[in-house]
Amino acid sequence: MAVVGRPRRSCLAVPGSSRKMLDKARGLPADQVFLDLEDAVAPLAKPDARRNVVAALNEGGWDGKTRVVRVNDLTTPWTYRDVVEVVEGAGANLDCVMLPKVQAAGHVEWLDLTLTQIEKALGLPVGGIGIEVQIENAAGLVNVDAIAAASPRVETIIFGPADFMASINMRSLVVGALLPDYPGDPYHYILMRILMAARTYDKQAIDGPFLQIRDVDAFREVARRSAALGFDGKWVLHPGQIEAANEVYSPAQADYDRAELILDAYDHYTSEAGGRLGAVMLGDEMIDEASRKMALVIAAKGRAAGL
Ligand code: GLV
Ligand code: MG
To answer: How far is the CA of 167 from the centre of ligand 2 (A)?
Structure first.
């Protein structure tokens, strides 16, 4: 039950091609930054972007942030060079590599072995660099359990809604928007499938981007849906979305206070009864071992958020 790993309530996308944006990202209050070599970078700009990303990681200033680089997916000619250049150049200053459009466990195994080789060659601790996988098409979702289990380096499973919607021919142009012709939430199954794999294999579950960057209220509304299910965080594409993500993926203060109260009361009454009571009353509410577990989830997230 990975409710707390590295902090990832807000995961900020930063194009590796823009030195200006790389510099600006250091000062923003995102939990994670991912320096992008994939879709935010044009093919001809990729070699320069690799150099920018290595320099930005080595220059430092990312204190307290989870530092990730998104490489290109394994159907392109760029992936191996992305991994080799970034990890050889800045492996000591990198927390995770993000692999997009993962379709099978073999994609993760390839990255795991490549990272191990580079870590050994550089004298870095083997296994120190984590992997984040993006699920962005039907094959990835069908194989998500095997993908999650493919390497102990996998830390997060990320929903990539834009590529996913395109790959299944969903008739919509707005990521996150409900469809007028479908009477439910078209993302529910995908989110739950990812969440089940994440919780089974002790990974974090991360929701993907919301592209209408000027509409922070709509961002909040979409984020609240995955936060309510149990997702740990969401991508942010613009500084204006960061505070909203940090807030939505932290428990509300009142819920956090209540969770700590449940934990205290349960410990107090059950130990007073010498361990013989399975359920106790807290005000009008009966609390038992399952309530304690639910309270632990909220309390752990609240403590990690500094509430
Ligand atoms: C993210 O990469 C997406 O495709 O939504
Ligand atoms: Mg994508």
So the answer is: 10
Which ligand approaches the C-alpha of residue 166 most closely?
1
Q: 120 with 142: CB under 8 angstroms?
A: no
pLDDT the model gives residue 277: 78
Taking the centre of ligand 1 as the mean of its atom positions, its distance from the CA of residue 159, in whole angstroms, is: 7
- The lowest-confidence range among 4-8, 96-100, 168-172 is 4-8
Phi, psi of 70 (to 5 degrees): -90, 120
E strand intervals along 75-189:
96-99, 130-135, 154-159
Residue pointed to by tokens 């990974």: 203
DSSP-based helix, strand, coil % in the chain, nearest 5: 50, 15, 35
CB neighbour burial string for 195-226, b if at least 16 within 10 angstroms, e if fewer: bebbbebebbbbbbbbebeeeeeebbebbebb
> Which amino acid residue places its CA nearest to atom 2 of ligand 1?
160
Which atom from ligand 1 is nearest to the alpha carbon of 136? Answer: 4
Question: Do 7 and 66 touch, CB atoms closer than 8 A?
Answer: yes
Residue 178's CB is within 10 A of a number of other CB atoms, namely 14
The secondary structure of residue 16, as a DSSP letter, is T
d(CA 37, CA 85): 12
Centroid of ligand 2 to alpha carbon of 218 (angstroms): 20
CB contact burial 40-71 (16+ within 10 A = b; e otherwise): bbeeebbeebbebbbebbeeeebeebbbbbbb
**Complex ipTM:** 0.99
Which residue's alpha carbon is at the smallest distance from atom 1 of ligand 1? Answer: 160
